[in-house]
Each structure stands twice: as structure tokens, then as C-alpha cells.
Write a structure and sequence with these properties.
The chain is an alpha/beta fold. It contains 7 helices and 8 strands. Helix 1 crosses helix 2. The radius of gyration is 17 Å and the shape is globular.
Length: about 200
């Protein structure tokens, strides 16, 4: 019986990060997904195609997804492809995040609708098409899921992630002083323990 673990990285990450998880899943094949999508509609096509193909080669498939990679996974995949999911700092409410970024950039919905795209001084480009898409395609997720969240996450509030976990019957673990990006030695040790205890 072949067990597969697929790691989906966050923004600025890479499929090579999957190497970290091999020691945590010694009885599974662990691979990273080197996706190219920048939008949820691109992800819908790319993720579905990739996971459908991988699913034909295994009896069980576990997803580990990070940040925007988790959001793309939530928007694209279903229990048809994934048996269990570990989500690390997932962007669980993209509409709320976009509206927050619009507030930070002092951009109104009317302005964004008129201009279609507006670049911000913090490196993100606001997109009216993106905002409309996430409003028109709410997440439907029925995969058994555990979520790891750092209470210093600057993209998603504890209130938002708690509401998402409750709505999707996911188990939420909060790391005190954890950040959106789990990367320090202490944070990675917490992450490893979280997976080890929840396998």
C-alpha cells in the first residue's frame, strides 16, 4: 500500500522544503509540488491536474500546505484527492486579507473596480478580478484537517482562523509567539512535534 505525502509551499518557498518532512513520515513517499500558479483560477487547473495524477499512484494521500499554498489547495482540491491535511498558517479568508490590504494601501473598492489592478508600496498588487473570484468561489472543504497557527500571524487573525477551523471541523493548534512564517529553530521544533503528535 503506497502512502504519499505532498508538500505545497507558501509564497517565496520551494518544493525542496518537502525534504524537511521526510523524517516525519518514514513510511511514506514525500514529494514537493513545484506549482506555478499565481491566482486561484490558475491553481484550480494546475492543482487539480497534478493531484489527480498523483492520486492514481497511491492508496492514501496526505497534504501538507503552507500559507498561500494552503489557500490554493483549499480552493482547488477535495476529499476525492486528499485523505488528510496539515495546514500551516493557511490563508483561510482571502477576501478579508484583500480588504485588509486595501485598507493598508488606502484603496477603495470603487477605485479598484475602475483601475482593475493597483500596485501597493508593500509589494502586493491588488486585483479586482482576484477579489471578485474569491467572493464568487467560497471554500468548500470536507477533508479531515489539522491547522497550525502562530498567534503573531500578521496576515490572519486568531478570530478568522478559529472561525474557519470551527466551520470546517478542523483541529486548531496555536503556537504562542509563533509567526506566519514558521522558520526559527523553536518554531520548526514546535511544528515537528505537532505533526508527530497528530499522525
Amino acid at each position: 500500500m503506497k502512502k504519499l505525502v505532498i508538500y505545497v509551499h507558501g509564497k517565496g518557498g520551494s518544493a525542496e522544503e518537502a525534504e524537511h518532512y521526510k523524517a516525519l513520515f518514514p513510511d511514506c513517499q514525500v514529494i514537493g509540488f513545484d506549482y506555478r500558479s499565481q491566482t486561484p483560477w490558475e491553481a484550480k487547473e494546475e492543482f487539480t491536474r497534478f493531484f489527480a495524477e498523483q492520486r492514481t499512484h497511491c492508496d492514501s494521500l496526505t497534504l501538507i500546505a503552507n500559507s498561500i499554498g494552503a489557500f490554493f489547495s483549499l480552493m482547488s482540491l477535495s476529499e476525492k484527492y486528499v485523505d488528510f491535511a496539515y495546514l500551516i498558517s493557511p490563508v483561510a479568508d482571502m477576501e478579508k486579507l484583500i480588504l485588509n490590504m486595501m485598507t493598508w494601501a488606502n484603496v477603495t473598492e470603487k477605485e479598484l473596480a475602475e483601475k482593475s489592478e493597483i500596485a501597493t508600496n508593500f509589494g502586493e498588487t491588488l486585483s479586482w478580478k482576484y477579489l471578485c473570484y474569491v467572493r464568487e468561489h467560497p471554500i468548500t472543504w470536507h477533508v479531515p484537517t489539522r491547522i497550525l497557527y502562530g498567534d503573531k500571524d500578521n496576515l490572519t487573525s486568531l478570530e478568522t482562523i478559529s472561525a474557519f477551523a470551527k466551520q470546517h471541523d478542523a483541529e486548531l493548534t496555536v503556537m504562542p509567539d509563533g509567526e506566519h512564517w514558521f522558520h526559527t529553530e523553536e518554531q520548526m521544533r514546535f511544528l515537528d512535534d505537532w505533526i508527530a503528535q497528530n499522525k
